[in-house]
Write a structure and sequence with these properties.
Blueprint (H helix, E strand, L loop, with lengths): L12 H21 L26 H14 L3 H11 L10 H12 L7 E5 L5 E6 L4 H4 L7 E2 L3
Antiparallel strand pairs: 1-2, 2-3
Helix pairs in contact: 2-3
Length: about 150
Amino acid sequence: MSGCSHRFRPRGLCRGAALTLVFGCALATAAATGSLPQDPDPGPGPQTRAVSSTVAPVDRDEIEDAAAEAEADGKSVKDAAEEVVSRSGDRWGAVYDEREYEEFEQALDGTYTGVGLSARRTGGGDVTVSRVQPGGPADRAGIRAGDLLRTL
């Protein structure tokens, strides 16, 4: 007698198929008869906000006029410009001062804003400078790779 005379059959294949069929029939019957559990008060659907057709483009001259008037009155130029933009109905409209706009442009360009150094923790738990960006604030301050950083 060579080889094994046992027949290998997947155990429970028929049982699994039968249970799947029974479950599928029960689910289909429940759905067809409306017997599935439902939320008693579904409430409003997902909240959506239609874009209003009353959004008017912001007139640059109007912003400049409001800013000039605010400056003459000794008030905040930025607040006056923000007021004009907010009245337009454009919820994405924004007013930036020169510094904020520069930071915004850097963020869009992918420019990293920081002190210009990379740090790492050593095996002893100290934090050291691993790299200094040439021309960055850390380089101008005289920080060099390998310097130990003090932690508070």
